[in-house]
Amino acid sequence: MKGKITAARVFHALGDPTRRAIVEKLSKRPLSVSALAGPLGITLTAVVQHLQVLEESGLVRTEKIGRVRTCRAEMTGLSVLERWIAEHRSMWERRFDRLGELLDEAD
Predict the structure, then answer these.
(1) CB-based contacts of 31: which residues, under 8 Å, 6+ apart?
(2) Are 60 and 74 in contact (CB under 8 A)?
(3) How far apart are CA 64 and CA 79, in angstroms?
(4) Average pLDDT of 13-36?
């Protein structure tokens, strides 16, 4: 995995519909690269490129055993997003609370 996993990296990875489809398929069970390529209607090379982005964002992990590369869902990227959402939710809740106080004062 190259570099730190950031929310921006995870959002970028999930911004592509093919990568979201890959994550969805892998959330059900591990699959080989060729098993992913077939239903997606894309080449093995394209799948590998998408998997590289997903691995770098902590959403997928691949392992090569013999000639077969098996892919599985990885939770690290989702944990990064959970923290990002929690931090931003807290900030917005405080802002809304403050806005409510300001509006109450205006009455």
Answers:
(1) 25, 70, 71
(2) yes
(3) 25
(4) 95
**Contact assessment for residue 9 and residue 59, using Cβ atoms and an 8 Å cutoff:** no
Q: Are 81 and 10 in contact (CB under 8 A)?
A: yes
Q: What is the 3-state secondary structure (H, E, C) of 20-73?
A: HHHHHHHHHCCEEHHHHHHHHCCCHHHHHHHHHHHHHCCCEEEEEECCEEEEEE
77 band by pLDDT with thresholds 50, 70 and 90 = very high
Ordered domains of the chain (ranges, CATH): 7-77 (1.10.10.10)
Q: What is the reported pTM?
A: 0.80
For the beta sheet containing 60-65, the strands, ordered from the edge strand earlier in sequence to the opposite edge, are: 31-32, 68-73, 60-65
15 φ, ψ to 5°? -70, -15
Task: Give the distance from CA 7 to its chain's centroid.
Answer: 9
Sequence-distant (6+) residues with CB within 8 A of 37 are: 43, 44, 46, 47
